[in-house]
Amino acid sequence: MNTIRILVVDEEPPITQLIKLLISKTMSNSELEISECHSVSKANQIMGQNGPIDIVITDHEFRHSNGTEIVETAKVACATTKIIMYSSTLDHHIINKCGADKYMQKPFYIEELITAIRQLTPTHKLGLDPQACSNC
């Protein structure tokens, strides 16, 4: 099983810390490397310097930018990076149009986030046998 590399981006540190904690506890049987940051520019820097990220979990709304820039940088840095974007105000059609792989309306349940992570993660990184898994 390979490590699943996740980047959580939100301007509010308590949000990124909570998401990290809940993912770690819920997916404790998976090898995880979860990073967090609190700005679009820092997210872009991490994606450009730290090698491929499997999944970016990001808010769409930032004070001086938006999550669309994160999507663009992620897809340039690694075409296989998957994006889970959440928002309280933006229409999901706009988010899907910007290239996010999954949209979640705030507030959301952690189960919804974990399901999205599992659906977007390659089966070999989850330790699943693709032939034995009909829902992969």
Could you walk me through the main structural features you see in this protein, from its secondary elements to its overall organization?
With 136 residues, the protein is of the alpha/beta class. The chain has a single domain (4-126), classed as Rossmann fold. It has 6 helices and 5 strands. Strands 2-1-3-4-5 form a 5-stranded parallel beta sheet, sandwiched between helices. Strand 1 (4-9), helix 1 and strand 2 (32-37) form a beta-alpha-beta unit. The longest helix is centred in the first third of the chain and has 14 residues, at 13-26. The protein is globular, with a radius of gyration of 14 Å.
Task: Give a quick summary of the entry.
With 136 residues, the chain is α/β, with parallel strands linked by helices. 41% of the residues lie in helices and 20% in strands. It has a single domain, classed as Rossmann fold (3-Layer(aba) Sandwich).
